[in-house]
Each structure stands twice: as structure tokens, then as C-alpha cells.
Amino acid sequence: MVKHIVITGASSGFGAALAHCFYERGYKLTLVARSEERLKGLAKQLNANWHVADVITSYDTLVSEIEQAYGPIDGWVNNAGIGEFDAVVDQTKAVIEETMMLNATAPMVLSRDCAKRMRAGGTIVNVCSQAAKVPTPKSAVYAGSKAALLQFSNALRLELRPRDIHVLTVNPGPIATPFFERADKSGRYEQSVKRIMLSPDRLARRVVKAFERAEREVNAPWWMNAGAKAYAMCPVWFERLAKRGFDKK
Question: How do residues 142-187 score in pLDDT, each as one tens digit?
Fold first, then answer.
């Protein structure tokens, strides 16, 4: 039986890379995004279903709509997300609410609804961030939203284990995608980390492999995850040593 995978934020960037990788592995796909033109084009390439939706305004009903239109769901990837790199005192209430809604509340509700409907053997994939483990200046709200999703996912994994539904978290560092068009309007941060940016295609291949192996999480790059472990053990020491890197934003 061909498994049915749903990907939010699928029209470009990491979501599109994931769609290509799942397609190459023979999965049935339903792609969800706001951009109808890009979504239709990608869906045509991959012989996929496409569903235009703004996750923030539709997360209450999105899982049921997808299931009714395209059939039972075996894998759901919460990939849609946003960030704006600014000091908290310079961020508007609207940006804070939008970030928390899209990065935390919506994927939590979507994960809940998937858990209610998924067959045994299903997998929920929540795309979090290394920022969830190591918060940095000018990413307080973004890091907070991703940390909330990461801890939610870790608890949900334990809750769903008896039902044979798996939860995979993806914790990447900077990825070379259009994410930075909004997150880093000046372009300074993107330029400063360009040489260490992850390839979306390479990361997507790792995630699909982890999906198929029912791994707990994907962390990339390895050295950033090593730093996250050091931060967890010695936060004061780590913050002092990493100050130069933290100030790049």
C-alpha cells in the first residue's frame, strides 16, 4: 500500500525539497501552501494533490479536509513556519502572535488532529530548529516558538507510542531557502552564515531516511547540535564563549 504524506509550507524551500524526496521514494503526496501558482506547478511535477490553505486560518479543519478530499493520512509534515530577526522591544504584537500561531499553536493542533485519525504505523514530523535548543539575540520569539514545538513533540511521542504513531522532530541550523527574505530583511545575517548554510535537498534526504527508519530526531549540522548539548550542560560558559557568533544577527 502506498503511503500518503501531507506537507505544509510545500510550495518552496525546504518543503518543496521534502516533496521531491518523498516523491522519489514512491509516496503519494498532498502539498499544502498559500501560493496557488507555485503549488500547482510543483504538484504537476510530482503527480501530487495540492491544497491551497493558510495554515494560521485553517488549522482547525485542515486535517479533516485533507483526509476527506485525498484519503487516510500516513505521514504529516508540519513544515510551514516564519521568523523575524529583531530585538523583542522592536517587534510588534502582531508579529509575535503570528510567529507563535504558525510555529507552535497550529502544528500542535494539527498534530493532535492527525493523532486522532492516523492509522497505526503513521508518523508526524515537526520541523523545529536548533534555535529551540540554543536561543540567540534577535530570535527570542522565534526560538521560543520552536522550543515550544520541540518539547510538545517530545511529550507527544511518548503519548502516541502505545498507539504505534511516531513523532519525528527536525532541528536544523540555517538552511539556504527563501525563509531569510522575511527573517533577515537587511541580509547581513544571511551573508554572515552563507558558508555554513545547509542544503535543503541534502537535509530533505536525511529527513526522509529518518522518517522511514522511525528515528527520534534529525539534527543538523552535527557541530551545531554538539554546541546545543554543551549549552544545555553549561549555559553561562557557553554564552560567554559564543558571544561573537550570537551577535551576528
Answer: 999 999 999 999 999 999 999 999 999 999 999 988 887 787 777 7
User: Any bridge partners for residue 5, and if so which?
Assistant: 29, 75
Instruction: Give the pLDDT confidence of 6-20 residue by residue, as tens digits.
Output: 999 999 999 999 999
142 is catalytic: yes
Closest CA to 183 of 84, 48, 72, 67: 84
Strand 123-127, strand 217-220: pairing: unpaired
Q: Does the pLDDT value for residue 78 go beyond 80?
A: yes
Catalytically annotated residue among 27, 59, 142, 189: 142
Do the Cβ atoms of 73 and 6 come closer than 8 Å?
A: yes
CATH architecture, domain 4-246 = 3-Layer(aba) Sandwich (3.40)
